[in-house]
Design brief:
Distance between the termini: 71 Å
Pfam families: Response_reg, TPR_19, TPR_2
Number of strands: 7
Keywords: Repeat, TPR repeat
Largest sheet: 5 strands, parallel
CATH topology of one domain: Rossmann fold
Oligomer: single chain
Structural class: alpha/beta
Organism: Nitratidesulfovibrio liaohensis
Protein name: Tetratricopeptide repeat protein
Shape: elongated
Helix content: 55-70%
């Protein structure tokens, strides 16, 4: 019973923090997302759950306008909290996070994501993301995430914020006093030790600063900030070898940071380690190329989508560009592109070319029933019914419930089996089509023809 009361009190505290941010501190939510479910959840949370006017929230779906939108809101003396999709319009928003933080360091950013690799999240945090939301999310958890992003919750967090502000204002001795209180409340607090190290460094006490940063690092194995502070401190005092050691530790924790590899390579050049420098520079260029090519591929696919219904030939050209841009980086995430390319080819009557593309995709995902289904349809369009039947059977072997996914899929499967001599399969698929839609006249007519041929 007591724990339930405590939870409710904490939730009320989180709600008060968010309301105070909007009403008293001129807070503003800028949502960079095309996820209508999340946008609706946030709007309802703001308007109904927290009773805040919805004019404190706006949505941007085009990443080209995000910097302008932040500038416009900031000019109205608003404190901006940005909710940003990790992927938007097929584009990784990591570069955008860096741009926002470089232009507006005070803006808070919450990244919206589904499942993603840990290394990518580590990089996003390193370049400026303040928090992460894994979708879907409940109203209460959403409010809690917002509260922790805009203001530390509890006495400890507030003391850390106070100490940081003192360091920024040049009140270094006062900051050290507050840091000692922090460490009394929570011995070995990594955040408290970091601020203490900043204060000592500003006072020129480099050894004491180093001790604080190293202690912070020992107490937070995956916390990048202490290692970054140590690398910067050793650069400041001219100890390149120690700086390199900390950069290498950072690289192991966050290996996707291209700029850090260049920094490491530069130190190796200065130390005369040309071979190691060259290796790091090559890795940096390879990673940067991967990111650039992935972006080119995403743009090409967007253009192909525009052409998909109007001009299959041009759609084909841009879909090929999308796949070519990925080079040897193709994975299961590209299966949709292969399927769309196959459809674009089939619309042009190039069914044989479509089967070739599906075969390439099967090398990436040999257990994907959709590829076998589409391959079967392509062979059927070329009147190669034996191959059509063989591939449709492979699709059903992988997923026996494939016909139940959609009435049109079930109907198409039924037609393929009718023409390829698979009467039992044809009957089963057509019956499924009618189960899914009892008014599906084409499926009923096909079943009647099947009965007349018996």
């Amino acid at each position: 019973m007591a724990s339930n009361i405590n939870l409710k009190l904490k939730q009320k505290q989180y709600e008060s923090t968010v309301v105070e941010f909007i009403n008293e501190k001129k807070g503003y939510f800028l949502v960079v997302s095309d996820d209508q479910n999340f946008i609706s959840l946030l709007r309802n949370t703001v308007a109904k759950h927290l009773a805040i006017a919805t004019d404190a929230l706006s949505v941007v779906t085009n990443t080209d306008y995000i910097i302008k939108s932040i500038r416009d809101v900031s000019m109205r003396k608003k404190n901006v909290l940005v909710f940003m999709e990790r992927m938007l319009e097929g584009r990784d928003t990591g570069i955008l996070v860096r741009q926002v933080k470089n232009a507006y360091s005070d803006v808070k950013i919450i990244i919206l994501t589904g499942e993603t690799e840990r290394q990518r999240l580590v990089l996003l945090h390193e370049i400026g993301a303040d928090n992460f939301i894994s979708k879907p999310i409940s109203v209460n958890t959403l409010i809690e995430k917002i509260a922790f992003t805009i203001k530390p919750q509890g006495k400890l967090g507030q003391l850390i914020d106070t100490a940081r502000a003192m360091v920024q204002q040049g009140s270094h001795e006062s900051a050290l006093k507050v840091c000692r209180k922090i460490l009394e409340l929570k011995p070995n607090s990594a955040a408290g030790l970091l601020v203490m190290g900043d204060a000592y460094q500003a006072l020129g006490k480099m050894d004491r600063a180093r001790e604080c940063f190293e202690e912070a690092s020992r107490n937070a194995d995956l916390y990048l900030e202490p290692l970054k502070k140590l690398a910067d401190l050793n650069k400041l005092i001219g100890d390149s070898e120690a700086q390199l050691g900390y950069l290498e530790r950072l690289d192991r924790l966050s290996p996707l940071n291209v700029e850090r590899k260049v920094d490491m390579g530069e130190i190796h050049v200065e130390m005369g380690n040309q071979e190691k420098a060259e290796e790091l520079f090559e890795l940096a260029v390879t990673q940067a190329t991967r990111e650039a090519m992935a972006y080119i591929g995403d743009i090409s696919e967007r253009i192909a989508t525009i052409y998909s219904e109007r001009d299959p030939e041009r759609a084909e050209r841009f879909l090929r560009k999308a796949l070519d841009a990925k080079g040897d980086m193709l994975d299961r995430g590209d299966l949709g592109t292969f399927n769309r390319l196959g459809i674009a080819l089939r619309k042009q009557g190039k069914w044989r070319d479509a089967t070739i593309e599906y075969q390439k995709a099967l090398r990436i995902a040999p257990d994907d029933e959709n590829l076998y289904y589409n391959m079967s349809m392509a062979f059927a369009e070329g009147k190669e019914f034996r191959d059509a039947r063989s591939n449709m059977l492979k699709a059903m072997a992988i997923n026996p419930d494939l016909p139940r996914r959609d009435k049109t899929i079930a109907f198409n499967m039924g037609l393929v089996f009718m023409r390829a001599g698979g009467r039992d399969y044809a009957e089963r698929c057509l019956q499924v089509a009618l189960e899914l839609d009892p008014d599906f006249d084409l499926a009923r007519q096909a079943l009647e023809r099947l009965g007349q041929s018996s």
